[in-house]
Amino acid sequence: MVKLQSFLMLSLAATALAAPSWWEQWSLGKKTNRVAHDEDRRLVQTSDQKAPFWTSEAERLDMLRNNVNYMDITDYMDLGTSLKPLGKKPLPKTAVHQNKVARYVDQLSTANMEIALTKFTSFNTRYYKSETGFESAKWLYKQISDLIEETDAESDISIRKFDHPWKQFSIIARFEGKNESLSNSPVIVGAHQDSVNMWLPQWGRSPGADDDGSGTVTILEVFRALVNTGFRPNRPVEFHWYSAEEAGLLGSQAVAQSYEKKGVDVLAMIQNDMTGYVGTKFAESYGIVVDYVDDELTELVRVFARTYGDIPVRETKCGYACSDHASWAKAGYRSAFAIEGDFSDSSPYIHTSNDDVSHINFNHMKQFAKLALGFAVELGHFKGEI
Ligand SMILES: *[C@@H]1O[C@H](CO)[C@@H](O)[C@H](O)[C@H]1NC(C)=O
């Protein structure tokens, strides 16, 4: 009762002090009937059919709790509007590097993944605006840099921080390709590093073991296997760990927008978001997302899954803007998305303090590591055209 009263008084005070001017009301849009005491108004999109609309932080939190996916397009209005679309390039139709991939697969270790995920989930939260989210990004950056420094292979590998207007940076690690003329046409393997507790986003405990510690560690292990075995592709292969996926795909939109502006001709991107939970409704499988993705690339991902994995493929849908592949699709590039199983059978613990390592199956994660390895090696070696 006390709480409610003081909340009401605060709201009233805020209304009186910060009554929006006519143009603020206009720009907020007619549909917003909440008190405009939220400074952090953002323009979001929840579907291709529906016009973007302005939201308060409280409204976005409601969307998170109700599993309404959105893209926060406030700062990325021109994503996908480049005047000279690069067009999509032909892809291979089959897997041809079984011998090479087998060598890298031998390097994959579930024990490594368990150690990394246990550490990664020990940060209180990896919320993109939090201090611990910044600390977790620095920890991840160090793991990747150490792998690069320790190798004596002759591969040309680099790492960089992609800074954002919030604390947690995104990370990009890159293997250069042998063929210089393909240097502007990378292959991208992605995951997101941030986590969120939907009840208390700023401070709430959010181990984010499955979402998306699992994808982060899956591709970290793939990266490790490639570094240790002297991977030298034809074209660049990049590993991306995005910040702020949970806040409307902010990190991946920023990265995709910068690539689009520079005219980078990305061949293909695959997202790994939730690779560690085996559901109870269906047999263990790869969930291959078939909505809001590139059909041809998705068909190829199915081929790679059949070639390099040991579990069946299940087609599934996850709706508009459900992960970072959507940012690449919007920018006009080919992207695909592999998830732990049927979307309806995915982890019930995500966005809560219960999304911890105890619900993770590391053998399942290894299946996704094999798929990501197949993707990186097959497409990295693909000669293709410029
Ligand atoms: C490099 O790639 C281009 C474009 O696909 C191709 O024409 C050229 O033959 C390649 N060079 C080598 C050395 O493979």
Walk me through the structure.
With 386 residues, this protein is an alpha/beta fold. The chain folds into two domains: 71 residues, no CATH class; 283 residues, 3-Layer(aba) Sandwich (Aminopeptidase), CATH 3.40.630.10. 37% of the residues lie in helices and 13% in strands. The chain contains eleven helices and eleven strands. The strands form two sheets. Strands 4-5-7-6-8-11-9-10 form an eight-stranded mixed beta sheet, sandwiched between helices. The protein has a three-stranded antiparallel beta sheet with strand order 2-1-3. α9 links the parallel β9 and β10. α5 packs across α11. The longest helix is centred in the middle third of the chain and has 20 residues. The N terminus is likely disordered. Bound molecules: 2-acetamido-2-deoxy-beta-D-glucopyranose. 2-acetamido-2-deoxy-beta-D-glucopyranose binds next to loops.
